[in-house]
Amino acid sequence: MPEDANIAARLLESNLKRSPDKAAYLCGDDALTYRGLAADAARFANLLRARGVRPGDRVVLVLPDSLAAVKAFLGTMLLAAVPVPVSALLGQEDYAFILVDCGARGLVTWEDSPAVVAARDVSSVACVLACGPHGPWGLADWSTEFAPVAPGADAPGFMLYSSGSTGRPKGVPHAQADLLVPYAGWGSQVLGVGAEDILFSASKLSFAYGLEVSVGVALCAGATALLFSGKPGPYEIFAAISHHRPTLFFCVPTLYNLMLRAFEPGAADMDLSSLRLCSSAGEALPEVLCREWMDKTGVEILDGIGSTEAMNVFISNKPGAVRCGASGEVVPGYEARIVDDAGQLVPDGTPGNLHVRGAGTCAGYWNRPEKTREAMLPDGWLATGDVYVREAGLYFHRGRSDDMMKVGAHWVSPVQVEEAVRKHPAVLDCAVAAVAVEGLVRPCAHVVLRPGQGFEPGAKLSSDILRQARTMLPPCMCPVRVHFLDELPKTPTGKVQRFRLRDV
Amino acid sequence: MAVNADELRGLLAEAGVRPELARAIDPAVPLLRQGLDSMDYPAFMALVEDRYGVVLSDAAAMDLRTLNDFVLFLGGRP
User: Fold this and answer.
1) What is the least distance, in Å, from the CA of B54 to any CA of chain A?
2) Long-range contacts of A446-450 (CB under 8 A, 24+ apart)
3) Higher pLDDT residue, A24 or B39?
4) How confident is the model at residue A459 (pLDDT cuts 50, 70, 90)?
5) pLDDT at position A354, please?
6) Right CATH number for A1-19+29-174 from 3.40.50.980, 1.10.10.10, 3.30.750.24, 3.30.200.20?
7) Residue B38: which of A258, A291, A462 has the nearest Cβ?
């Protein structure tokens, strides 16, 4: 096998040679050197193989961000099996769906996680590994000798799940080599990441943004990455930054908003002096938030846009040239085009559908041929679903071409929210569309009341509808407002036109 | 309109904050230090906008950290 065919092996070996005793990862009070990382990744590979995991098998990882999580990810890749990092905050049903959908052979999670319960009914799962913050019990017993396996052309290198318009997320497979792309363009040329940097992503490893930063960019640069296991609230994040002194911080606008609100310049546990740059992605960064952040903290914030399908940020602001309210310029290594619905290029200043092309993009969804046809276009172009306007090389976000919303950097489908809202006895019909609160997108429920039953539009009924929806939906999907109307805007054929209800 | 902290505590509960948490909110301490999370806050902000007919989209809104800050902003007395 060519020595660099297994990308996990390549990244581990090059860092082991260059700086074996340097911290690869920090988590809480613990540090993991590159030597320790290479050793434990190999141990993980041996353990998985002994438990029946073969090259090409999917291994679902349901773990908080931790040293164990990166060992598991890289160890699975050494074996040329397919790590599938999934959020640690989902419910049993969500895990059951993903385990079945990807035909998982292995599951690595904490001892009594809902994923363990879900796995009991999934016949493909042969290996369930209970894992603590440093790895599974007994990991140290396994050999650190492991000959990396060349990844096959047929199987993915790793896979992430991304939610869509129906209730079920879709698998986004990537080649092992796609992990090298974020550093090649964005990390090195836009952010200037070097080995001396300490990267801190508040976005978790189960998201493309978190994974590309904490594994892709960090290992390619030979830098140190800080992992945060808990729920990221503003005060906890400030404390982690003050304590560990990262040089780059990666986060999403909804959390930047809270951090800015919480920020007290000069407070000892809010020392941002180590930061040379902040990066924002996951949802559009509001212009006011961008400006206020830089004014109050003195640290530049670079808005950018990426996707799970690209496994990278493909349009980004540049240090020293931030344009508040813009996503920035095309990142080296990518091409972008803006087209109308007929596929024709539109001139500068005219909104259209953003397509991007570059190395490392997903070639097709896992078992979703129709979705693949919609998004993965001929000649390697990816339809992002985002509407953009370009002016003098700068790209400005103008919302989505579909009805999906990014709320708190999570995909929210109006369909799912509507189903929940419709369950309220007062609701005859409902459409959910984006509303901006402090410039950030939130779901708003537009409701037609059942006539003749004494339901009155007003604050009391709104509260009741929102309260009931909250019992049925995860937090980011809960509507923040109810708007009452007499009828929903529809096409002549009766299809609801949600875009006409947007208020952003 | 005589806005006071109690009224805003009620609004917090309406926004989805657990009633016992909303009742215990100290109006002089930042809300984010008292258990409000990244989804409670926007829900609360949206309700404040609706109920008091204000728009919280500018820089001034960033300085609203405590219930007392909100009371002052809305023209009441803490």
Assistant:
1) 11
2) A446/A482, A446/A483, A446/A484, A446/A485, A446/A488, A446/A501, A447/A421, A447/A482, A447/A483, A447/A484, A447/A485, A448/A484, A448/A485, A448/A486, A448/A487, A448/A488, A449/A484, A450/A425, A450/A426
3) A24
4) confident
5) 98
6) 3.40.50.980
7) A258
